[in-house]
Write a structure and sequence with these properties.
The chain is mainly alpha-helical. About 70% of the residues lie in helices and about 0% in strands. α3 crosses α4. The radius of gyration is 13 Å and the shape is globular.
Length: about 90
């Protein structure tokens, strides 16, 4: 995988820049939410069912992600940096 070839220090630095305004617990929740959202191809209904939350709660979380990171996961061009951060999580040591 291409992301595995990125030096660990740069991976951490990238994630830190994306989540600079977030507490550790918020980052964990954001990563879980975004991974599920991506796995369900952006479906609000499927993602909310899988996370066992109401659709409006998911919409609130997606809006909160935008307010904390500056990136809207519902807009493809803005979701890409967020998803890179999500997939970098898989390579943490």
């Amino acid at each position: 995988a291409v992301l595995a070839n990125i030096p660990q220090k740069k991976r951490y630095s990238y994630q830190d820049s994306i989540f600079q305004n977030c507490e550790k617990e918020q980052v964990d929740e954001i990563l879980q939410c975004l991974k599920c959202y991506a796995e369900n191809n952006g479906s609000i209904a499927k993602t909310s069912d899988e996370l066992f939350i109401h659709k409006n709660t998911l919409q609130y979380r997606l809006a909160k992600i935008k307010s904390l990171t500056g990136y809207d996961p519902r807009v493809l061009s803005e979701a890409i940096p967020l998803m890179v951060a999500v997939y970098l999580e898989e390579f943490k040591e």
